[in-house]
Amino acid sequence: MPDLNQVASVDEVGVNERVARFCSRSIKKDSKVEALKMVLSMIDLTTLEGQDTPGKVRQLCQKALHLHDAVPGLPHVAAVCVYPTMVGVARRALGDNDIGVASVATAFPSGMAPRQIKLEETRIAVAEGADEIDMVISRGAFLQGEYGFVFDEIAAIKEACGEAHLKVILETGELGTLDRVRRASVLAMHAGADFIKTSTGKIQRAARMPVTLVMLQAIRDYFYETGRMVGMKPAGGISNAKLAVHYLVMLRETLGSAWMTREWFRFGASSLANDVLMQIQKQATGVYQSADYFSKD
Amino acid sequence: MATAADRVPVAKTYKIYIDGKFPRTESGRYFALEDDDGATIANICRGSRKDFRNAVVAARNAFGGWSGTSAYLRGQILYRIAEMLEGRQEQFVAELVQQGLSKRKARNETEAAIDRLIYFAGWSDKYQQVFSSVNPVSSSHFNFSVLESTGVVSIIAPDESGLLGLVSNVAPAIVGGNTVVVLASEKLPLCAISFAEVLHSSDVPGGVVNILTGYRAELTGQFSSHMDVNAVIYCDADAEIAASIQQQAADNIKRVIARVDVDWNKTSAQHPYLIRDTQEVKTTWHPIGS
Amino acid sequence: MHNSPNSLAFNDGWQYAPAPESTDHISLEKQFDLFIGGKFVAPEEGRYFETINPATEEQIASVGLATQTDVDRAVKAARKAFAGPWSKMKAAERGKYIYRIARMLQERSREFAVIESLDGGKPIRESRDIDIPLAAAHFFYYAGWADKLEYAFPGRNVAALGVAGQIIPWNFPLLMAAWKIAPALACGNTVVLKPAESTPLTALKLAEIVQEAGLPPGVVNIVTGAGETGAAIVNHADVDKVAFTGSTEVGRIIQRALAGTSKKYTLELGGKAANIIFADAAIDQAVEGIVNGIFFNQGHVCCAGSRLFVQESAVDEVVRKLKDRMETLIIGDPLDKNTDIGAINSAGQLETIESYLSLGREEGAEMYQSSCAVPERGYWCRPTIFTGVSQSNRIVQEEIFGPVLAIQTFRTLEEGLSKANNTPYGLSGGVWTDKGAKIFKMTQKLRAGVVWANTFNKFDPTSPFGGYKESGVGREGGLHGLDAYLKLEAR
After folding, report:
1. How many C-beta atoms lie closer than 10 Å to residue A70's C-beta?
2. Could you give the domains of chain C?
3. Subunits close to C (at least 3 CB pairs below 8 A)
4. Angle ∠(C235,C237,C243) on CA atoms, nearest 5
5. From the first residue on, what is the mean pLDDT of each consecutive set of 10 residues in chain B (290 residues)?
6. pLDDT of residue C2
7. Which of the residues of C are catalytic?
8. Which helix (H) or strand (E) holds C297?
9. Model ipTM?
10. Do the domain assignments include residue B162?
11. Best of C3, C7, C12, C14 to mutate (most A CBs within 10 Å, chain A)
12. A100: domain CATH number?
């Protein structure tokens, strides 16, 4: 386990200034279209509701496969993200396509369950066909300073994942400071996370650029140190194309070109895709678009 | 002629004051201070370039400690100087009379010098509050400006006011944490050296105040050109000398402070802007965040 | 982490398409006259000089060359305005004129930003987000002082000085004009201002605003020219105050020239600021601070953090991160909104910088430059760092005024501090540490007029700016900046 006291501190004002610089980049023309398509390809199309039904999930999968067939040459999204009970439905709906099925697990979103239950939930989701597991960390334990407990839990889930990729949700909105975000990132990566992810999307403070920057910098430092690439997934609150492109700028200027694929970067979002599609259409036609022309699923 | 019954007075040797010590001038030269009748009052050290150099070294060495001394303690020390001067009033009155002042004027000047020290002692922990600011910048930063001492200050003291003029220029500089090298009045040098003795017995650390006597024509150039002096104060130079001081000061962008035509006897000659003259404004920024 | 081969790639994959700021809303005359007595007038001798775009080496406009006679006319106009309407006007009304200038600058800010970048080579992002808004903010700030001056100096009466002669540099052309003109006017003075010969345009456009704002003729006069014009201002017998921003070398000449006169002066001169990074700092933000400290405005900044001191245990990490960060800096067309580093201001300055690059290598230092592409025409210098240097290297001692950083290490606080202060300059400094007590110790002991702790190169109209030692005399900005333009008298 890493010594979290050795993790460099983070200055919030400096982080915000850096983020403002990313947002001042002007992305136009070809590079905008390229970015928008990249955003689409990185989306984890998500439905995580108590009211989810197989019908709803099948509709979502249909959207994942056919984002907007009126425009040729669009990529499909990276994955659909659902609760464990919906993994089988999603898997069947997506067929042999290379869209992944991601399942939240470990008593999402609170994580308040005994470890055995979390492990069992993970194994079931994987058995149902999940390619990716989005677990939540035990924030209470982390805030108490029980870093060993959190580390062991992540490592155990990672083992339970088998071949499936593990995304570790830090739920940064509950960690309070960027210093803790950085420490939690380091902890998760050392415990075996394939991805680190900001948020469940179930609390008010979801992904924000400053938080994501701190996590990207943690990923970079971990890569410097170990040579292992870890992916990043901001989730929740990224609902428009412009903001998503700012995220790509931030990614490009922090981790470089190697991370600019769905293999290493994801957006956890439900309504982002349509806004991106509208922007792509606008770029193609020169005319601003209406939401009525894009399917809501 | 002294009769057998009379006691032969012990004449005082006036030396210069460098680094808390009283050496003779390294040049070995002197000049005779005479009274109106042409009688020698005392032999005065004719300070040299090297004396000045040594004094600046002493002042520079003392600067770190003195500027870091708490405002409260600097005030206490200035007050202590005043106390010591009060106790030795008669000596200063006598010296001023020896140098041609009336008894009344001599007493007034001595008392005014004591009171001026008290005045500046009181400012030690207040001028910062008067002249500092917190600046409401637009970004997420805490920003404030404070005064810091300029450094080593050379002072060409008023020629016409041997004690009060000297005190009026030294006190605001040192209360603000500077260290000084002073060229005493050429005409009225006696009190300057006696004042050094007062300083010496007043907890003023060695090197904070250094006092030379000598010819202005010889030393003014040194006072204004030395590269390790940060500011030069002159009090009564004619236009040509003033110009040469300013010229030479430019070698290292010294702050040049002219205090000519000041009547040091007036209370209007004391104000905190004299302290501010040898202060730098330092502005510090720090983010406000978590 | 040391010497790890795991490296990041920034130069392939998705790139940003050019995003040039449009220039179609800019009106620029082909020829500019001098602004004297409220009118644009031809220079007496009818001579003009060219101002060029350093990014293209193309001429932008020709600008009047003011001679002694022209300066004389400008000073007379300023004197007349001072003796007449300006000093008779109620202070509150004076303030309203300055507010007007601020507002009109805000309205025309995009136009000014484009012209600033065209004429001086700085990235549009900086002229748009920093130079022009700060210039307007400066006028806004000092406008409010005009009728409140008696509250600024306890126990003193204040009075205007008269005619202020002001000479400004080419690195922040409009901003420096604002720094000079705003407080001068607020304090009731009139001004004769000379912009730098390589960047005269925004000052001349500001003259248009002064005209449109209806200021009494002669309150603001702008004369263009080079060193001789400046000297004519400094030496003019009817100028009461000289304000100069520029090199220490010229500052010294001015201080000498003013010897024997009663002119008040302020000098804002060179610097070689230490930027000190402790191992316990927030390293990623510190790296941003280093970048902002030395690469902001191509390093044409008197307060640039040109000497970097890194605590030994953190130096590998800092240098590695700095190099990666440098790879993401975009150099090129100043009018492109994505440009981070624009053109070097002039051929002469580029030559100076390049001579230091050679010198650094001759001195045995190791030079590293980012790999970004550089346009073929124009004056460019890639972001550059030197390692393996010490205090005795000339590139450590002398102000280069370009995007060139000299990196040294230190072990203890005392060592860092003593190296940082080991310079004749004292304009600014930076400290990066997570420990509060250490910040105060460092900021207190650094002999410099502006100290940035856990940040760098921040400016604000309320914040006094100016140096210790050979970095100058006096302060600009904030309450303290008023002092430069007032006589203080006993009440």
Report:
1. 11
2. 31-269+468-490 (3.40.605.10), 274-453 (3.40.309.10)
3. A, B
4. 55
5. 72 94 96 90 96 98 98 98 98 96 98 98 98 98 98 97 98 98 97 97 97 97 97 92 96 97 95 98 96
6. 40
7. 268, 302
8. none
9. 0.96
10. yes
11. C14
12. 3.20.20.70
